[in-house]
Amino acid sequence: MIIFENISKVYPGNFPALENVNLKIHEGEFVSIVGHSGAGKSTLLKMLYAEEQPTSGDVYFSRKNISEFKARELPYHRRNIGTVFQDCKLLPKKTLTENVAFAMEVSEKKTSEIEEAVPQILDITGLGKKFDAYPNEVSGGEQQKAALARALVNRPKVLVADEPTGNLDPISTWDIVQLLLKINEFGTTVILATHDKPIVDKISKRVVVMDKGRVIRDEAHGRYCI
User: Fold this and answer.
1) Largest CB tally within 10 Å, which of 12, 68, 93, 153?
2) 226 in helix, strand or coil?
3) Neighbour order of strands in the sheet with 158-162
4) What is the pTM of this model?
């Protein structure tokens, strides 16, 4: 489904962020991409949803070269990819329901679809009883669950979670990870970028280790080792 082929990225000032990265991620996989801060994890993932372009190499999604997409095609491509970050980026003046619904509204979904899908995804993420709360009225873990619900409500093929547990306590962190595993069981491809060693070891799924912009290890049932 996803292919990073000979990817290099050099930022202005001759700062290399990625160097000749080759990586394939198959449909339905759960992949943890790990490494210290600055290893290139986020830069690599940004290329998947075309926030960054490689200096050289190609990124393929469902056999299509992302660099060949026209500007008008990018919004449709990005709807296939749900994204969650360390900063939840919820809209503070909207309830959790409204935050999730907004993702469907900008995708021009019908009101009937929104009214059906939003309660379902809030239930799946464990927020069914907090649907009317505002972001500042719930915990950090619940805010991240709302961000996950928003990322998933349009039923993307891939979920990219970039350090989603960075601001959370251990209990909330494991709640989010269990939710990611559950989402993966439903068939969504999950790519988790993290430097949280205990979580990666506990997940015990495919681990791709990056260091200084390179993939240095790729194991089907790996642990976080550099």
Assistant:
1) 153
2) coil
3) 81-85, 158-162, 189-194, 30-34, 206-211, 214-219
4) 0.93
Question: Residue with structure tokens 């095609």?
Answer: 73
pLDDT at 192: 97
Tell me the average pLDDT across 60-69: 94
Mean pLDDT within 103-122? 94
**Cα–Cα distance between 215 and 155 in angstroms, integer?**
29
Q: Report the C-alpha dihedral over residues 49, 51, 53, 58, rounded to 10 degrees.
A: 0
Helix/strand/coil percent split, the chain, to 5: 35, 25, 35
| CATH 3.40.50.300, the chain: domain bounds | 1-80+156-226
| Block residue for tokens 């069981």 | 185
Give the pLDDT mean for 39-67: 95
What is the C-alpha to C-alpha distance for residues 5 and 23, in angstroms, rounded to an integer? 7
Q: And the tokens for 151?
A: 């990322």
Task: Report which residue type is found at 80.
Answer: N
Query: Which pLDDT belongs to residue 225?
Result: 67
Query: Can you read off the two tokens belonging to residue 33?
Result: 């991409």
Write down the H helix ranges in the chain.
Answer: 41-48, 74-78, 96-105, 111-124, 140-152, 170-185, 197-203
Beta bridge partners of 191: 31, 160
Give percent of the chain above pLDDT 90: 82
User: 1-80+156-226: CATH homologous superfamily?
Assistant: P-loop containing nucleotide triphosphate hydrolases (3.40.50.300)
